[in-house]
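In response to a reviewer's request, we include the raw inputs and outputs for one of the modeled complexes. The two entities were modeled together in a single run.
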Amino acid sequence: MKRVIAADIGGTNIRLALIEEDGTIVDEKRSRAELSRHRLRSQYNAELHVINTLADIIAPFAELHGVNRIGMGFPGFFHSQSGRLASSPNLPLLQDFALTERLAKELGMSVAVENDALCAAIGEHRYGAGKGQNNLLHITLGTGIGSGLILNGMPYSGEHGMAMEFGHLCIEHHDGLLCGCGNHGCVEAYASATAVIRSFTERTGEQHDAKAIFALAQAGNASAQAVLQDAGKYLGMAIAEAVKLLDVSTITLSGGLSGAWEILHPALMSELDVNLIPPLKGKEIVLRSTLDDNAGLLGAATIAFGI
Amino acid sequence: MKRVIAADIGGTNIRLALIEEDGTIVDEKRSRAELSRHRLRSQYNAELHVINTLADIIAPFAELHGVNRIGMGFPGFFHSQSGRLASSPNLPLLQDFALTERLAKELGMSVAVENDALCAAIGEHRYGAGKGQNNLLHITLGTGIGSGLILNGMPYSGEHGMAMEFGHLCIEHHDGLLCGCGNHGCVEAYASATAVIRSFTERTGEQHDAKAIFALAQAGNASAQAVLQDAGKYLGMAIAEAVKLLDVSTITLSGGLSGAWEILHPALMSELDVNLIPPLKGKEIVLRSTLDDNAGLLGAATIAFGI
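The model returned the following structure tokens for the whole complex.
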């Protein structure tokens, strides 16, 4: 069976996996790697640092498995025409960078790269809860909110590779909470894991991670239930806006916060229904990811297989 | 040069045109026709009434010009797979109706039909201000707000033909104005011609149509200027949401209210910029339609030509 290397690039972690065409993850490796270094001052040095860091981690893994084809999910925006990395919020020195070509040359391998949130959507569409759907909106609920879109069976990345900034849809136009992007009222400021954690602390004075808050909610803690219901409600509001524009029927959710499914999902569905126009009401299904953490890796494998 | 018949179907008016492949409108005819009759009670009768009414108007015009190919913009939602009319808000008796096939059989002509707002987008993309763009969001500011989307050069109509319900994006989540769709806070309730007329009356007690309000604004009337600036501002807010999801660079506006361009456009651009995330700021252009009322007809011609 054909095999490729898949890579999921985070700010401080790199996950590599050997994946077969049916989606089986045969081997996996996690490495720590600081791609963004503050002492790097020039684009030239930043490019060199990124290429060398990636190559040093990938090459031995690829060699070990005798595979010369890699797909990668990378946190950044890619020009849809040229495939160049336009920019990366966490690596501001990289601008209009031919990441794919440079890495392919350095590794002597075939390399395919795509935005990390879009990779998760591609993986969920190919191997997960969105399998067989013509259109899919996939949302990752983590520290922030990422998302990716499949339209007519194909990944859609927009004019500047910045499509599906779903996390920055505005759901509160008056005195909205400040978002990491600098704007106010973004759904990310209300429904990410970070937002849930902050909201719980504001209510109770206690500090817990998202998993613990979910456990508290299950045990009947009213504050924990309320913050998770609120997160679901705000997500439902934002999903309604996306559905009114895109008329997608299937929405999948992954990421830490989707663990609170039993509370999140009913709150989300009820608010989604309220906000849709009548002919769209009841036409949407929102599913929990069946791949979760592995959606990005499996999407990276998909682009490497070229399927 | 190849010629087709284009039809733009409204609630009480039907426009027909003979159009050449370069977009020249050679001949045009307007007819009154009540497609929705309240005494029709069965779907069977409603279908018959629509087919007969359309055929009676189209056949003589087609015969006169010796043309046997027609494209039509129709107010309704079309299944993207089957091409059947799923539903039409103004003609509720029509459900899952094979409009295209039935009309083709009745006329003995080749017939292509698409949603009217999407037709306007197709026309603007093929012959108007959106010519040559890969992606386009076209918005029609009339009694309501319609819109259509071109992605990767192709019309995008969504899973149930209901994509781009742009007019029903929510821009006010608290005590928003009631919209015709039954929800509150839709941009259509704030920035359609109807909304501007109502808002002006609320401010001044005077009743004027949109054109007159624009003339007053140009003559320095502060209330007229304020309601048009508000409409622009709300449009900018809604366009920002669409851009965050779709990353389209070119937005075109047509319809009566776009006549107030000098006031509408600056208010819109400034609010759009405020609401975009930083990497998208400054990347959008919003253009006034160069086809205006004819965008729908030219889009209908485009689908008839099969281009």
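As requested, we also summarize the result in words. Residues 142 and 260 of chain A are 12 Å apart (CA to CA). Chain A has two domains: 3-120+295-305, 131-289.
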